[in-house]
Amino acid sequence: MRRSAGPALGRWAGTGLVVLVSAGCGFQLRTWDFASAFETARIEADHGVDLDLDLARALESAGVRLVDSEADVVIWLSEQRDDWRSVSVTRGARTAEYELAVQVRFRVTDREGSNELAPSQVLRSERVARLDRDNLLGSSDERRLLAAEARDDLVGRMVGTLDALSRKPEPVNADSR
């Protein structure tokens, strides 16, 4: 018996339509390339801050070389907090939903540390999830996933700030006019 090509052709046509619509709307994957503005960076992280490792990976993938001494920019990370708390309970007083909040203080200075390029600010990312009492292993996997998402969000915002700084025009010196 011979099968019709109709369903397979419909899937290919649907896939092609998605590709065409995505290309037509200007969709593109987000990439960072500000190494021309900041060739080198130094990350200064206080004790207890571990987001510096995630940030270092993101900066290196954007073409920025990390150094321990003199750098084009210095990124300061402090006061990192990772908090879990119950946000709703069941009738039996058991946690039904919990919230993860990750926050860190972030600022960017010039190489000497005297000129703030991005003022000190607290970045915070929150995630809420249901606790599945029947699948505690799945719940712990979900907790790890939520923590990774929150960390990725914070790193993305830091890198976005650096990207915005790299696009700022250089100040014009009044004497050079």
Q: Would you mind describing this structure in some detail?
A:
With 177 residues, the protein is α/β, with parallel strands linked by helices. The protein has three helices and five strands; from the N terminus they run αβαββββα. The protein has helices at residues 6-24, 51-61, 136-167; strands at 40-45, 65-66, 73-89, 95-110, 116-130. A five-stranded mixed beta sheet has the order 2-1-3-4-5, covered by helices on one side. β1 (40-45), α2 (51-61) and β2 (65-66) form a beta-alpha-beta unit. α2 crosses α3 (136-167). The longest helix has 32 residues, at 136-167. The radius of gyration is 23 Å and the shape is elongated.
Set down the secondary structure blueprint:
Layout: H1 6-24, E1 40-45, H2 51-61, E2 65-66, E3 73-89, E4 95-110, E5 116-130, H3 136-167
Parallel strand pairs: 1-2, 1-3
Antiparallel strand pairs: 3-4, 4-5
Strand content: 25-35%
Spatial extent as radius of gyration: 23 Å
Biggest sheet strand line-up: 2-1-3-4-5
**What integer is the average pLDDT?**
76
Low-confidence stretches: 8-30, 172-177
- Helix count equals 3
Structural class: alpha/beta
- Main sheet? 5 strands, mixed
Residue share in helices?
25-40%
How many extended strands? Answer: 5
Q: What general outline do the C-alpha atoms trace?
A: elongated
Order of helices and strands: HEHEEEEH
Gap between N and C termini: 83 Å
